[in-house]
Amino acid sequence: MRQVTLIDSKLLGLIMNRLCYQLIENHDDFKDAVIIGLQPRGIFLAENIVDRLRQIQPKSEIRFGIIDPTFYRDDFRRSDKSLIALPTEIPFSLEGKNIIFIDDVLYTGRTIRAGLEGMLEYGRPASVELLVLIDRRFTRELPIEPKYIGKSVDSYDNQKVKVMWKKDGGEDKVLLLTEN
Amino acid sequence: MLSVKHLLGIKDLRREDIELIFSQADEFKEVLSRPIKKVPSLRDITVANLFFENSTRTRLSFELAEKRLSADVVNFSASSSSLKKGETLVDTVNNILAMKVDMVVMRHASPGAGIFLSRHIDASIVNAGDGTHEHPTQALLDAYSIREKLGSVAGKKVVIVGDITHSRVAISNIYCLQKLGAEVMVCGPTTLIPKHIHSLGVKVEHDLRKALEWCDVANMLRIQLERQDVGVRYFPTLREYSMQYGLDKKLLDSLSKKIVVMHPGPINRGVEITSDVADSDQSIILDQVENGVAIRMAVIYLLAQRMERRG
Question: Among residues B221, B238, B126, which one has the least CA distance to residue B168?
C-alpha cells in the first residue's frame, strides 16, 4: 500500500478555518441552523468545526447532533461486511431548521443518501446543505453534491482517502492510499 | 456478525454475540424514542410468527419489533392451526415458507421444536419459547434490563425464584447471566428445583429470605400451572407457596440493601409477588417489557444480516 499526504496538518487548519467562515457568512449567528455529523468518521470533522465556530463566535448557540446512517443503508444484506449501528444523538427537532450536514469524504454519495433519509425522521428541515472535507470527483453514483468543499480530489477506484484526526489518536492529516 | 444463523437458545451463543445484540439494542432503543419509531432495514424480509402456544406479550413484542424494522409480518396461532387437522410441524412450516417467508419466530409446547425445525428448513428461526427448554429473547431482555439498571451484569448476584423445573425463562437466564459473568442462585421448594441443577454451576437455596439477602437482583417467576404434570402436587396450595416464596413489601423493606425486582410476566399478583412490590420503585418489570422490543429488533436485524439475499 503506497501512501501520499494530500493535506498536512498546517493546510488542514487553514481549510477548516475557511470552511468555518463560509458557514458564518451564510448562517450568521446560527439561530436557525443545526450541524449534523455523519457516523462514523464525519463526527470528528463536525466536532472540529463546531469547536472552531464556538471559539470564533462564543456568543452564538451552535446546535450539534450526530446521525448514524446504518439502518437506512441500501447495501443491507448485499455486502459481506457486517453493518453495525452506532449512536444517533439528535436531542432537538429539525423541523424548519437549516441543516448543515457534515461528512469527511464524499465518494459514491450512498452514505449521504442513507443519512439524509434517517435525518428526515426528525422533522422537515427548511433546507439541507452538505459540507465535506474531501470531494472525490467523478465517482458519484447518486445526484448528491456538496455546497462546501475542503478539497476536491481526482482518484482511481483502487485508491482510498483516509482522514486522520488528533482526537482519534493520530495526527491531523489526509492521506491518499493506493493498493499495489 | 452473530456466530449463529438461528437463535434457538442462549446455550449456543458466545459472550460476544450477546454483547453485540446489546449494543444494537441500545441503538434500537434510541429509534424507539423518536417521533417516527421505524427504520427501513428489513423492507425486503417477511417474518412468520408461528405461535403454537398462547402468548400475548411475547407475540406482540415480536410483531412490534418486526414492524418497526419494516418487515412484512404474518401471524399464525394455535387456534387456527392445521396441526389440529393432522398436518406435521415440518409440513405446516414448509407450506408457510413456500409463500416466500424468510424468517420464522416460533413458540411451541415441545422442548427442542426449534432445533428440530432448523434441521429441516432453510429460513432463519427465532425461538420464542419451546416448552420447558429455552426462551432466549426473554433472557436477553432480562440481562439487558439488569445492565441498564446496574451498569453491568458481570459480578452481579441474581436469584431466580419459583418454579425452576418448568421454566424455560430460568434455564435461558442461567446461561445468559453466567456467560456475562454474573453469579446465579435458584430458590424455590425442593419439588420445583431440578435434581441436577448444580451441574449448571448455580447455587441452590430453599429459604427465600437468605436468597434475597445474598442477591442484587431477584427474578420472581410465575408458577407454571399449565406445564405441571396433571395429578402431581408440587406444593400443598398456592396460598402456602405464596407464604413461603412470595415476595411482599414487608419482606422487601426488611432486607439490608435495596435489591432490584424483576418478573418475566404475566404476573399473578398476590402469589409470587404482591401488587405493592410489583409497582414499587425497585421493580423494573415495565422496563423489561419496553426493552423486549429493542432486544427483539436487534436479534432479528442481526440474524437477517446473515441471511442470503434472494432474487
Answer: B221
Phi, psi of A45 (to 5 degrees): -65, -45
Cell of B97: 415458507
CA distance A141 to A133: 19
From the number of C-beta atoms within 10 Å of its C-beta (0-12, 13-18, 19+), residue A171 rates as exposed
CB of B175 closer than 8 Å to CB of B167: no
Residue ranges of B 252-311 with Cβ closer than 8 A to chain A:
304-305, 307-309
Among B30, B35, B40, whose Cβ lies nearest the Cβ of A72?
A: B40
Question: What does the block give as the cell for A144?
Answer: 448528491
Q: Spell out where chain A has E strands.
A: 2-7, 33-38, 63-67, 98-106, 127-136, 148-153, 159-164, 173-178
Is 0.95 exceeded by the ipTM?
no
Within 88-127 of B, beta carbons closer than 8 Å to A belong to none
The torsion angle over the Cα atoms of residues B289, B70, B43 and B21, rounded to 10 degrees, is -20
Q: Which amino acid is at A170?
A: G
Cell of B275: 401488587
User: Are the C-beta atoms of B128 and B275 separated by less than 8 Å?
Assistant: no
Which of B31, B69, B302 to substitute to test the interface with A, most A CBs within 10 Å?
B31
Residue-wise pLDDT tens digits, B67-107: 999 999 999 887 655 566 778 888 888 888 888 899 999 99
What is the rounded CA–CA span in Å between residue B168 and residue A128? Answer: 51
Quickly tell me which residue has 419459583 as its cell: B162
Which pLDDT tens digits describe chain A residue by residue (180 residues)?
899 999 999 999 999 999 999 999 999 999 999 999 999 999 999 999 999 999 999 999 999 999 999 999 988 888 777 889 999 999 888 999 999 999 999 999 999 999 999 999 888 999 999 999 999 999 999 999 999 999 999 998 889 999 999 988 888 999 999 987
A127-158 burial string, b = 16+ CB within 10 Å, else e? ebbbbbbbbbeeebeeeeebebbbeebebeee
Cell of B263: 418478573
Instruction: Determine the number of helices (DSSP H) and then strands (DSSP E) in chain A.
Output: 3, 8
Cβ within 8 Å, pair A84-B24: yes
Calpha distance A37→A50 (Å, rounded): 10
